[in-house]
User: What shape does this take?
Amino acid sequence: MHIPDGFLAPTITIPAYAVAVPLWLWAARKHFGPGQVDALPAVGALTAVAFVLQTIMIPLPGGTSTHLVGASLLALLRGPLVAFLCESLVLLLQALFFGAGGITVLGVNALAMGLCGPFVAWLLFHPLKRRTPRLGAFLAAYLGLQVSTAVVVLILGLQHHLNPAQFPTPLSVMAVTMMLPSLAVTGIVEASYTLFALGVLGRARGKSTP
Amino acid sequence: MRLDAHKSRLVLLAWFAACFAFSAIANLALLGGLLGLVAMLFPRQACPGRPAVRLSQPPPYALAILLLTWAHARISSSTFDPDLRAYAALALRTTLIAFSTFAVLDSRRFARG
Assistant: This one.
């Protein structure tokens, strides 16, 4: 669901950077300072998994794609700010070396896929964690991905509304094109993967629950 | 020619600013001219020697996605009459930014610098 370079005008991409940069700095200071060195191997491994998952993309008409994100897992395990920072790193590498997403839209993509979705997943998982951890994780990951997709759709719709010559496909077309595969397929696969990964990590740590 | 660290930073900064400037352009002729200019600035990246590398350049994919998107928009929305020029500009803009990015990063002078 990466928005490629050129789809959005600087009227959207520059404010997105203005929001994302302070959040990157805050997240880096809060979670990757000298006191958090122990967490780095696990976070690095989860980020690498997210990178691999996102590299497998199914192109969609409209110029975007659908794919797993893997950031909800990071949010459930380490919090939404860690997920945001790691997802942003994944997006930067993909933009520079694979042509997925882009450098001008990095802030927008990071906020949509790295912050909004994982934050909703994290919010949803917390109240359900004690009662039904497995169902909670499944729902959180599923809805997190839908939120990310919906934010991308809304941003593209906003660009069409602001200047149709910049992005000619209307919101109604993009909503159907992007939300249907996400609701029917990608969300379920993402949720299943998150549940599976949490189970594996829980067993490795000697717990039956995440 | 080797680029020192200061020049490398300037080139990166210019590329970063240029990407934002390119993303604001919707004029087809201007986008085409700029693509030609960037191709002249990076001739080795614009026309790589190996055919396999040439096929992996963004333009063929951008063209295919442009046509697919236009056809999809035309079929899926009866009230919407898609403007092919806007799609062409979108494809050119995406290609221009993608090519600039890869050309700057892949530039031999940059790699050696």
User: Anything to note?
Assistant: The mean pLDDT of chain B is 78. Residues 84-106 of chain B form the longest helix (23 residues).
